[in-house]
Amino acid sequence: EDIAAEPLITYHPSFTGRTRIDQAFAQRQLEPRIALEAIDSDVIKTYVRLGLGIGIVAEMAMADAREADLVTRPLGQLFGQNVARIAVKRGAYLRDFVYHFATLLSDRLDRDLISKAMTGHIDHYEL
Length: 127
Known about the structure:
The longest helix has 12 residues, at about 15-25. The mean pLDDT is about 85. The protein has 5 helices and 3 strands; from the N terminus they run βαβαβααα. The chain has helices at about 15-25, 40-50, 75-80, 95-105, 110-120; strands at about 5-10, 35-40, 55. The two termini are about 30 Å apart. By secondary structure, it is an alpha/beta fold. The protein has 2 domains: about 5-80, 3-Layer(aba) Sandwich (D-Maltodextrin-Binding Protein, domain 2); about 85-125, no CATH class.
């Protein structure tokens, strides 16, 4: 209820995460005050820095040390969690930068887990 009273800056409705935000407000019969809709988290953060409202962005958009000037609060308990997946061709040779990219997405991903998943011999490797 407190968040609904503030001007919000968040993703355009065409983005997956925005649907969960809208549903959370609707379930509580609240009408959010959407001040701005953007297609990029950097745009959202810029407008927050300008004092135009509270930004709602994906958690991974706040992982950079350059965001230390912004105060963050996890909102998964209100809006749910979104899942990101990495798709690679089974058995393909992966270069080091692919493994590095995967570790940037989740600290639980490492070369061993990715290699095992690519063999197809693991029943469940979703993190």
